[in-house]
């Protein structure tokens, strides 16, 4: 009974896996500084076609007329009262360029070190809210996953038998109605991870996707199917360095 019913004769194997992803989506922004601007995948995804990880830009800060030159550093990088406070050629950890050796007025009340870098420097005191690329919620992510069980010489893809060419053109993943569709809306992924996309899009966050292949190879291979799960890897309550790329 133990040997047959509990399948004590079976052995286990770990999978060797490869993953590639591709995102699609267009959105329009119409900021007073930039004017009308169409954003596509080459603008907001890094890299455009990734493997195990990728970054989707959902928000940004516009710094008009920025070019390489000299300008005052932000007060966050430190104040100064004389040129000797600004060591020429040095870079401050919180700074945005190399110091020229001059202490110059930042505004009518404080002085900061002059730097050579991208000027004027970016000011991130006020991050746009709602996020400028909030339409990214509707962008789609296509995941291709290939696996093999080396011990048993069995290979499988997440594009299983029911995922036909025609189905792939129109399906969108849903855990109940379309659980095998490999095309996911970013908003749905974030929701299933237990997070709020509108909040997450302002300063960013991290979401993990796992693909579980728990297959009983006693059965025909068509029963070996992927199970997708989504995990929030970001704590909303964090007060130190919140978000993904704002520092």
TrEMBL record:
Q: In which compartments does the protein localize?
A: Cell membrane
What are the BP-aspect GO terms?
Answer: calcium ion transmembrane transport; response to ATP
Q: Which Pfam families match?
A: P2X_receptor
What membrane topology does this protein have? Answer: Multi-pass membrane protein
Keyword Glycoprotein among record annotations: yes
* Organism superkingdom: Eukaryota
Which family is this sequence assigned to?
Belongs to the P2X receptor family.
- By what name is this protein known? P2RX1 protein
What phylogenetic lineage does the species belong to? Eukaryota, Metazoa, Chordata, Craniata, Vertebrata
């Amino acid at each position: 009974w133990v040997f047959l019913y509990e399948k004590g004769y079976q052995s286990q194997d770990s999978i060797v896996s490869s993953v590639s992803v591709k995102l699609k989506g267009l959105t329009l922004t119409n900021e007073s500084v930039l004017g009308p601007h169409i954003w596509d995948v080459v603008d907001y995804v890094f890299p455009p076609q990734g493997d195990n990880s990728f970054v989707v830009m959902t928000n940004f800060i516009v710094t008009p007329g920025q070019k390489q030159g000299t300008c005052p550093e932000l007060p966050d990088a430190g104040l100064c009262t004389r040129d000797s406070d600004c060591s020429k050629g040095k870079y401050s950890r919180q700074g945005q360029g190399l110091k020229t050796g001059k202490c110059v007025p930042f505004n009518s009340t404080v002085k900061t070190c002059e730097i050579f870098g991208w000027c004027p420097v970016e000011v991130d005191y006020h991050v746009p809210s709602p996020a400028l690329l909030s339409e990214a919620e509707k962008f789609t992510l296509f995941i291709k996953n290939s696996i093999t069980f080396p011990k048993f010489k069995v290979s499988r893809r997440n594009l299983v038998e029911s995922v036909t060419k025609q189905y792939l053109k129109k399906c969108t993943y849903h855990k109940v109605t379309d659980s095998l569709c490999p095309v996911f809306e970013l908003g749905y992924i974030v929701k299933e991870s237990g997070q709020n996309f509108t909040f997450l899009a302002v300063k960013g966050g991290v979401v993990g996707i796992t693909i579980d292949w728990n297959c009983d190879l006693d059965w025909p291979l068509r029963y070996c199917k992927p199970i997708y799960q989504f995990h929030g890897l970001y704590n909303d309550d964090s007060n130190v360095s919140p978000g993904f790329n704002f520092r």
